[in-house]
Structure formats: structure tokens, C-alpha cells
Structure prediction request, 252 residues.
Amino acid sequence: MPFIGLGLHILVALFFAVHALRSGQQIYWLIILFSFPLLGSIVYFLAIYLPNSRLEHGARKVVSAAARSLDPSRELREARAAFDYTPTAQNQMRLALAQLEAGAADEAANNYEACLRGPFASDLEIKFCAARAFVECGRYAPAMAHLEEIRATDANFRAEQLSLLMARALAGAGRNQDAKAEFEAAANRFGSFEVNAEYAVWAMTSGDSQTAAKLQTELAQTMKHWNRHTREMNMHLVRRLNAASDVARNAP
Prediction:
């Protein structure tokens, strides 16, 4: 029996080692994983795997959506009141995020720009959120500039979400070939439902019917195996897919 337990620890460590290699983690993680199979795997799971997993990302989206449905403007009200009372950089960042989530992308972009002129000028999270705001309000050049800076600084920072955002920025700037290459790279590396759904939306709206048809078939197969919770969690993507499909179908 001890040998079975030891074998299981090695298998778990091997799983995380493969993840570390595929996601471009530092080589010392391999040393930790195989030197201390059980403890190393636990540390890797908590420090690297879970924060970047679709499970945690999905859970955050569900909680945020539930809170917004109960009181859609609460966070924006509270963030604006906090900034008006104490106009610190932290409160300005909170306000910018609340504005972005509320759909006020122009205001969010302006606040993020102000944050990036201060002591947080090199903060990758602020740069990423600023890029989101710029994409949402159609300012694609500064969005791409921030995303390129993030990649140059830390290639693994929010890699999946950054790739999707870069693809959207490239598409918005009219660089469809570059956008397709970015979507394709994200699909090959991550292969998540979100990546393939966003890729399909782009393909349908850009007239790439062959790619769109292939992705829609794959997405339909995936959705057949969903439970109710998974379907609710991804409903916003399904709505985007259906809307894009309707537009493509009615196009002259």
C-alpha cells in the first residue's frame, strides 16, 4: 500500500510538471515537484495552478455576476464615494475597475491612465485593466501597447486572457490576419471554451465562415456535456455566439 501512495504522489507531481512546462514556469518548479512530490505538488497547486485555473476564474465570474444582479450599481456608487472622500491611487483604481465593469469604458480608461502616471506606472494588473478599458472604448493602439509591455515583462501574466484581449485589439484595429494568428495561438495553447467561443465570434463577424463552422461544431459538442451550473456560468458567451451567428446568417 505505501508503494501505491508513493506512485500517486509521483503521478500528481508529473501532472503539475507537465503543466509547468506547457505554461512556461521557471525550471526550479520541476526541482521542487520531484524533490518533494507531495509537498511540492501542494505548493504548486496553491501558488501557480489554482490562481490561473479556469475553475477559479469561473467561480469569480459567478460570484461577481450574482452580486451585480442583486444591486448592479452598488460597487460603482461605493467606489465613487470612496474616491471622492479619499482620492488615493488605490481608490482611483477601484473606481476605474467599477466603471469598467459597469460599462463606462471611457471613464475607466481615463482613470487607469491617471493611475499609470503615478507610483503604479509599472503595475502589470493596472496595465492589463487599462488595456481592457481601451479595447472596450475602441482605443486599440494604446491597448496593444500595454499588452505588449506586459508580455515583454512577464510572458505568463494572465496569459490566456491577455491573448484574447490582444486578438480583440488586433481585430478592432483592422489587422485581421494578425488577429487570426493570435486567436489560433490561444486556441492551440489553452483550448478553453472561452478562447474557442471568442475565436468563433471573431470568425463569424469577420467573414471567415470555414473557421466559424469548424469552431461552432466543436463548441456544440462541448455544450452537450454541460451541466446546469456550467451552462449558467458561460451564458454570456453563449449569447455572444448566438448574436454573432444571427448577424452572420443575415449578412448579405
